[in-house]
Structures are given as C-alpha cells and as structure tokens.
Amino acid sequence: MGDRVTGGFxxxxxxGVALVEAESLAxxxxxxxxxxxxxxxxxxxxxxxxxxxxxxxxxxxNIDRNWDIIASSLRVDREALVIPRQVHGDGxxxxxxxxVKGPATVTGDALVTAVxxxxxxxxxxxxxxxxxxxxxxxxxANVHAGxxxxxxxxxxxxxxxxxxxxxxxxxxxxxxxxxxxxxxxxEVDEDVAAAMGxxxxxxxxxxxxxxxxxxxxxAETNRLQLTAGGLEARNVTVVRLCTACRRDxxxxxxxxxxxxxxxxxxxxxxxxxxxxxx
Length: 278
Known about the structure:
alpha+beta, six-stranded mixed β-sheet, globular
C-alpha cells in the first residue's frame, strides 16, 4: 500500500518510480493509470530526475532513458506509448490505430481511445492532467488542461467527443484530476482571469494580495466543467497536491521560473483483457 493523500488518491511505488493513483480507477481491472512523480529517473539538475520533455534543454538520451524506466516500471511496451506534441490548446485526437505510437506522432492536448494496449501520455509541470474513463464501453481520455485549454472547456468537449463517437453516457463516466498547481500558488493577470468566462462567479478565483492579480484554481474549474458536462459529482475526484508547493514530488514551471522538467501522466486500456471483461 502507498501513502494516502486527500480526495481518494494514494502515492505508491512501482519499479523504482513514484506515482499517484486514484482509488476510483484502481478498482477497474481493465485500466492502467499513473500520475507520475519526478523521482526515479536519470536526469540531473533542474530536470532531476524523471523528466520526460526536452523542451527546456535536458539531454535527449536522459529523456529516452526516463521513458524506458517508466515503461519498464509500469510493465508497458515502450512502443505502445503515444506522446503527443502539446500546444496548450483544445485539440482532441481520437486514436483508432495501434500504429500511432511514439513522440510527436500527433498534435493536440487531449487523447481519446477505445483501443486496448495503447498508452496515452500527457506531460505536465503545473497544468491539469485529467483522466476520464467510460467503464461501460471501454473508452478512455487523457487531457492536458492549461489555462487556455480550460478557458476553452477542453474537458467538457472531450466528454462530448466520447458521447458522440462511442456512445458514452456522461453520468456513468469516472474522472480523476491529478496533481497541478493549486489556487494557493497560481497567480494570474486580469486577462487570464477574464478568460475563465462563465466560471468567474463559481469560486475558482480569489483576489491576490497584488493589485490587478488573481489566484486561480485550475483543478476546481475543470471539475466544475466536467459536472456541467453531465458527470456525477461523486464520480469526479481531485487530488489536492500542488505541484508548486511539493518540490519533492513534482516539477513546476511557475515555481522554477520555466527551467524545469515535465512529469508523465499515463492512461491505458490493458491489452490482457477483452471487451467481454468490461
């Protein structure tokens, strides 16, 4: 057993890496999921240690080795990883082919699939990682929700795609919102605050001590968007671990002034099961 944290999550260790698991998804035998922490890799310095992105200057061989470590620790075929080029937008990619693998094969900030054995990978360092699972139809989605994606309601749009393409019923979906920068640390300007539009009066913003600035709770905004999209509130869990506060566990773009790593967030339908197991 791992260390319990708030909201129905626990921190556990597998094969040398640390990860956060949602109890609601851990109970589903056909789903593998992991909000990875930063420890267990080979990167050094600002990227120590399980960095999964070369964006800020880490060595490519370190990142490759880190992905190898992740795949081995989770017992996932390295070739099964789908690692998109994320652009901080609201693009949604439906993966329908097992041949779509590797880094930057697709571009978008949300991945949806009903294909067994395809590991959907999203990288974060403050933005919200969000898993959605349809336990009835065997459909999963892995979402990267920064402030731009959140302003465009990417989480709710993913629910609509799952409903339209796969017949998912929103009221039956399970969602887990992983570690992200909290409202305690995410200070934004008035333009970003205004971009939250209809959510301004929902309590996700509070005034910052600095004039003209606001503290934004991205995770809570996404939770509200999911429930507005038809998910039952009891089926949406949020881990209350702030990436900026927890230097020991997570990379944080805001805390570290932009020079930092990215943790991986992985969701997969296990290929050892069949649709009859759903």
